[in-house]
Amino acid sequence: MLAPVEPANVFEYEAAAAELLDPAAYGYFAGGAGDELTLRDNVEAFRRLQLRPRVLAGVGDPSTAVTVLGAELALPVLVAPVAYQRVAHPDGEVAMARAAATAGTAICLSTLATSTPEDVAATGATRWFQLYVFRDPGLNAELVARARDAGFTALVVTVDTPVLGRRERDVRSGFTVAQHIEIPALGRGGITPAQALELISPSLTWRDLEEFAATAGLPVIAKGVLTAEDALLAVEHGAAGLVVSNHGGRQLDGVSATIDALPEVADAVAGRIEVLLDGGIRRGADVVKALALGARAVLAGRAPLWGLAVDGEDGARRVLELLRAEVQMALQLTGVRTPDGLTPAHVQRRR
Ligand code: FNR
Ligand code: LAC
After folding, report:
1. 193 lines ligand 2 (CB under 6 A)
2. Ligand 2 atom nearest residue 83's Cα
């Protein structure tokens, strides 16, 4: 369904999605853990940073393209793994993947997706697979093989979720998932996030990550790193990349905003593996700040999800296109011709 007036930005897409979605579903997508301090700070921290533009740089018409794990993307924003997309829109992850393909970017499919990897592959989108490591090793091997066979080009192992954070909005609403909404990885429907997480191993270690890196036949990315110490471990244990992430404020409440954690991680990694970031991306300027501080690209979870909720594939595509246009203008007005022209000197803390 179309909103009466097309939303002009991500915040307006969220407002429109909040009107359309069942309140419990909206609470699941929008909410965070505990007091939601980190959820809010992810967004606010970008506003504590300001850009330091350079003028008369002859920018012309800057390109927003970046290369991530060897793949060229038209914009430095990938679609983050978000579970249960059919709860937001009946076309779910397939529509999201089509939107990503049209926008020229990649989608990372969640283990707890409600579309199959094969259906997502059929969209032709550049695709990564997010792995929740289950207690059952057979299931993990099966999921990895299935992703590889379906042409997924990276394995994103989520490392910040040994247990599910306590999201009080879901406790209050009693959020449940309809029986007809199936999770193909688990072969059944009606499973809540809390029930799914009981199947996931709480005992994962860096050794396990190393094992996936050695055996998956795909580059492994550790998603959910917030410290220099863990960034170094990711490098040592064979990760091809990492995502500075706090799971969109949904896991440990009270950790730093991801943009505040990025500089120490980028410093520690020192270019040895690819550094990505997610959390709080709502504007093209947020993307530019993250790139300036050392991210190669960012992932956005809720932003394209609100587009999907409002208008399916078209809505998700419009959000990605809005972000691309905002990134391009921010580059032009910051005075750089390409994303890799951004440096920490383009950002300062608000005085
Ligand atoms: C997530 N995220 C997530 N991450 C993951 O590794 N596997 C998953 O299944 C999910 N599921 C999920 C559901 C919902 C509703 C949200 C909002 C998030 C986290 C996601 O990949 C990403 O880290 C955050 O969404 C980034 O923050 P923003 O962009 O939503 O602010
Ligand atoms: C979430 C899980 C499923 O954040 O990743 O809801």
Report:
1. yes
2. 3
- d(Cα 140, Cα 138) in Å, to the nearest integer? 5
Pairwise CA distance, residues 351 & 349, whole Å: 6
CA 300 – ligand 1 centroid, Å: 8
Q: Which atom of ligand 2 lies at the shortest distance from residue 250's CA?
A: 4
Please state the pTM of the whole predicted model.
Answer: 0.98
For the chain, the first-to-last Cα distance in angstroms comes to 44
Q: How big is the CA angle at 104 (ends 101 and 110), to the nearest 5 degrees?
A: 55
Cβ contact 218:144 at 8 Å:
yes
Residue listed under structure tokens 């490098």: 235
* pLDDT value at residue 1: 57
Please answer whether residues 31 and 169 qualify as being in contact, where contact means their C-beta atoms are separated by less than 8 angstroms: yes
Closest to 93 (Cα-Cα) out of 78, 102, 105, 82: 82
Q: pLDDT of 47-67, one tens digit each?
A: 999 999 999 999 999 999 999
* SS3 state at 89: coil
Intervals of the chain under pLDDT 70: 1-4
Res 3: pLDDT: 53
